[in-house]
Amino acid sequence: MAAYVFGAISRFHDAEDVTQHIAQELARRFDEYDSQRPFVGWALWIAKSRVIDFYRKQGRDRLVLSEDMLQKLAEVIVDRQSHRDDRRAALEQCLDRLPERSRRLLDLRYVEELPAERMAEAVGSTAGSVRVLLTRVRHVLAECIQKRLSADSV
Fold first, then answer.
1. pTM flag (> 0.85)
2. What digits encode the pLDDT tens for the residues 37-60?
3. Angstrom distance (rounded) from CA 16 to CA 2
4. Residues 102 and 145 in one domain
């Protein structure tokens, strides 16, 4: 949804504000959501309306993107959502297969957001060694994800 809004509204702060308003509206109207339909489609329907409202409030007669283009942008995002879901599932499966030490390094880097020096302290290693290990783990994950996605598409 944020990608949609930032694609439709060129000024960063305006797009950020509209995104926040949409998030609030989604939360407020969540009881209207039909769980039998894709959530992303419903969220983008609301986002499209709010983007159009934004331009109307700005006093502009025409949108930077036409309503047709906004609709096409929403369709592309919905289509890509299933691909992201597939990649996320593959990532989770590949993470489960990693050795504990590798998963620990990833947690330190991406969950705790530690720099290499602090990670090295936490695992009793050097910063250089941690950087090399992280590079290897990322490479292993990327290969695993690619293999899973290729196998699923066959």
1. no
2. 888 888 888 998 898 888 888 775
3. 8
4. yes
